[in-house]
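Researcher: Good morning. I'm working through a list of sequences from a screen, and I'd like to move beyond sequence-only analysis. For each chain I'm collecting a predicted structure so we can compare shapes side by side. This is the next one on the list. No need for commentary yet; just the structure.
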Amino acid sequence: MESAINVYKSLLLDDRNTSRSVLHFDTLSILARDENGGTDKNKSRRLIKMFRPDVEGNITLLNFLKACDKVYRRLRLFRASVVNSNHLDDALEMILNCVFYVLMICLILVIYSIDPTKIFLATTSLSVSLSFAIGNASSKWFEVSKHCNSHLSPFIINFCEL
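Model: Good morning. Structure tokens for this chain:
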């Protein structure tokens, strides 16, 4: 908020009529100029919608701060959605990489005349039995680490249980 107040004050100093205590919309309407020096109506409407000047074209500090806050919140939401999208893209890439490598392994096994179903049945039975063997211990580890407020090493977790 302090930076928005500083921008408002500097724009107020740049205003042509320095006797005012509020910013006039003409100062911000420079942003709506196109490359020919004319006013772009669409940009001008969006600026009016964003800053909400009164009938005389004055923009109070409160309205300026509200507009800056609204833009800041939209930027934060956009940044969060980009980060979420990157996480989803990374997860999808990992899944597709796994599928690709499994298909490549199957193709290589078929080329060497080895039946891939026998190998997959053996590894599947081994992985299922292993998951049942360590499933309870891993769920207990996550439960304890949740109570310790972080994922700590097993030595510290044992200390937290005391």
